[in-house]
Amino acid sequence: MKPRPEVLGAGAFVALMAVAPLFLNAYQVDVLNSIGLYALLGLSLNLILGEAGLFNMGHAAFYAMGAYTAAILNTRYQIPILWTLPLSGAVAGAFALAVARPVVHLRGDYLLIVTIGVGEIVRIALVNDVFGITGGANGIFGIGRPRVFGYVIRRPEQFFYLIWGFVALSIFLFLRLKKSRFGRALNYLREDEVAAEGSGIDTAYYKLAAFGLGAAWAGMAGTLFAAKMTIISPESFSFWESVVLFMIVILGGAGSIAGVLLAAFLVVGLPEVFREFAGARMLVFGLVMMVMMIFRPQGLLPARGRRFPWVASAGALKQ
Amino acid sequence: MSSAPAPADPVKPALLTLAEVIKTFGGLTAVNRVSFAVDEGTVVGLIGPNGAGKTTVFNLITGNYQPDRGDISFAGRRLNGLRTHRIIMLGIARTFQNIRLFQQLTALENVLAGCHYRMRGGILSAMLNLPAQRRVEGQAIEQALQALEFVGLTQQVFTAAKNLSYGNQRRLEIARALATQPRLLILDEPAGGMNEQETEALIGLIEQIRARGITILLIEHDMRLVMRACDKLVVLEYGGKIAEGSPERVRADPRVIEAYLGTEEDA
Amino acid sequence: MEEFFQQLTNGLAVGGIYALIALGYTMVYGVLKLINFAHGDLFTYGAYLGLTLLTSLALTDRLGFAAGVLVLALMVMGLVAVLGALLERAAYRPLRQSPRLSAVVSALGASIFLQNTLMLIYGARFQVYPDNILPAATLNIFGLYLPLMRVLIVLASVLMMVALYLFIQKTKIGTAIRAAAIDQDAARLMGIDVNRVIMLVFLVGPALGGIAGLMVGLYYGQINFTMGWVYGMKAFTAAILGGIGNIPGAMVGGLLLGVIEALGAAYISLAWKDAIAFCVLILILIVRPTGLLGERVADKV
User: Fold this and answer.
1) How far apart (Å, rounded) are the C-alpha atoms in residues B93 and A298?
2) Residue C112's domain spans which residues?
3) A190: nearest Cα among A292, A293, A54, A23
4) pLDDT (tens digit, 9 = 90+) per residue, A3-45?
5) Which of A25, A38, A288, B123 is such that its CA lies 20 to 30 A from the CA of C26?
6) Mind listing the domains of chain A with CATH numbers?
7) What SS3 class is residue A63?
8) Quick check: is C285 in a domain?
9) Does any domain span residue C24?
């Protein structure tokens, strides 16, 4: 049996990434690290926007929740930064559940506007040093370096394996999720909410679950971001961050993990390649969004239908 | 060939009962004090001119709308106030007038939606891919394939819903509804857009569903189908019930004739 | 009390500006059921075009303040209207039959594109309206000293709202717009050219948004290429507050939001000023998504 082309492609990609730091300089590795963080955030938003079809344009708020939780725990209570991962995920997820609950029933573009509003309120709250713990506009600095099995992670290539390791783990888990009843339920929501509810699916529950899980993952990405930067401030979580993440999911193809990866490379990587045109970066984004919707609305690498290899191999049916 | 009306058991209560149900939208009364019952094991047709409120009645039964007044009960349980998926879980399944499939997904995935609520497993068990999880998925797929086979879509298991022919889309919707293992199946214009041959096959399918002991309530404009498949008809006009009874009796009812001729003059 | 009335009138002026922008959102939403995300940026174009025309043509020197500003306003309205129509042609018309997400994404893309075009032309810094050509006079109204500009803005915005209202309610074209907003297919069957109606909406809305941009430039003296998105969000909030798709609603919502925001900034917290509108937005969508003047409509199943 010949392996499918996408399996070959994925294998080549993994092999290439595994050895990439050996051939790249520190700056280039750092760019790859940024791409990895955006890929992670894109994957988390993909659960909400791509799989469940819920227009969330305030994803930076959840990302910020995780980053600030990690930073506060680390700088105030000296908790090692990576230990805060579960808690920052939980805080971001719980926050998402709390804000999504009253608004998640709203129709597509209304939800979009509300999530923009939530994102802005969070950012304004951070700038205003809410509860006196976020450090206002200056943010929080002096976040400790992460340690893995006693090794302090400091250099870009070390971060590279931490970040991309987490990306790989996320993809592994999300692929399993996609194949499951849970993953399908999110797709039913996206395709037709009335039909989903009419097939016995608790749509309200799954909308919240998508928000909670996606936000929790963004929160954990926030922890990695805080660990990498050692300084975080509200400007890292602006509306434009949410727009860029939204763009990554749409450009790649809603619901497509490979698409999200590709789009993260394009959206974060290309501006680094064409640095002299850096000022025109957003202009090009805008143009691409308009043109894409006319000529390729399904994204660059649209999601494929699920295969059920065990069905076919069990001889349960002939194709 | 019209099947004999199932004898109404005086002791056993009806499976589905609507009592004095009222629904208004703005100033318009879409459903006006409608009462009728569906006995277990029968096929009941809900007919009437366009805009008579038939689909609204369906939407009230499945909880897409809430009645302003009146009671709807199913198998001894009051449905008022329940959300749609809860009603489905009680044993009512439905199809839609303007086909509502998950267009991008395959036929199999569509039918798996119907299996969903009887399966267990959430985020964690999926991520860990536990043996129990795999077993549940396997069983669901088996049931879904059976449902697809029942409606005659074995060749289209991995075809995206949007690529199916119109008639097959209607069949797929029925398969999805059957996958919920309902006691009552509600069909909204199942023969809509079908040609004569497809309609003939559909009548056969309805007979088969009924043979499985599933009660059917349907809206249909195709009078041949209605006359052949139904034990009882309920006729609506302007939101109110104007007749009820066996197809023969309803066909002879002067008010029904007037209602239908009236609409033909309007059209 | 003096402070309160100052804030109140200030709120009305800002609210008038919100209302003018909100009208553009609400008209487009009424006809196309689309949030025109780029509308806020058309407003910014009004402010920048106003500045460029004001300084390069020296209109107020040649024609005097009143006539100069009037001519300027008409020019800005005309130019931004054309821009709006072009936007509709390029970004929205090709997507008329596409799913809603596509149009929303395209609208966002258009917004980003327009904004960054301005940034590349004028630079990222704040641009300043010349202060020497505008009279810094104050008016004494019942013992209250109000800046002339503030009074003019309130008057001008109310005047334009009334004009638009009469246009929509009393003229044949206005009736066509209302018909297309209720049911496009039916309107088409009745012989209304829906494409023309949409084009018209994309002329009138941006014209009003453009003049609002000019007003902001004249009132605050400072403009920035990103201001369209904050004003746009607030104006959209105003449109929702009044009931989206509802023209009097946009006016009421705009004025109300302006006043709420001005009083909130004065009496609650200045630092949280920008969050007030978003809180109002979220609250209204939770409590009464149809807005103050909107009607409740059941979703069709």
Assistant:
1) 32
2) 2-225
3) A54
4) 777 788 888 999 888 888 888 888 999 999 999 999 999 999 9
5) A288
6) 5-318 (1.10.3470)
7) helix
8) no
9) yes
